[in-house]
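Friendly challenge for the regulars: who can give me the structure tokens for this chain first? No prize, just bragging rights.
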Amino acid sequence: MNGIAALPAWAALIVATLLFLGASIILIGALGLLRLRTFYQRMHGPAIIVTVGAGCILLASMVYFTVAQSRLVVHEVIIAAFILMSAPVVSMLIMRAAVYRDLRAKKADSGATAGGVYQIAGEEAPGKE
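First reply, four minutes later:
Bragging rights claimed.
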């Protein structure tokens, strides 16, 4: 007998809990993508929340295959390490590309100038007269 029916009850409970938690976190991140208004706000869902959700699903996979095969399975640790290293870098690069695109197009209302870090060339910084 293969599959989830062959797992002990404690392992099935852990796997089911991690899968539910991971799927819920990913759903919240996806809803944030729909709910938030600007591109810069929308970046937070995939950048932070979905990484944690994927980690929960990878942990569930690791527990399932470790118990089912009666040996330690660590392939998921390599995948999780790659996601944890690459997701923040990719998100930062996408955000910087969007900021520079908006600054070059002189879109003052896009959110690129929020916080006063960047300013559109030819305009005065807020608060300076």
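The chain has a mean pLDDT of 81. The longest helix spans residues 75-104. Your move, everyone else.
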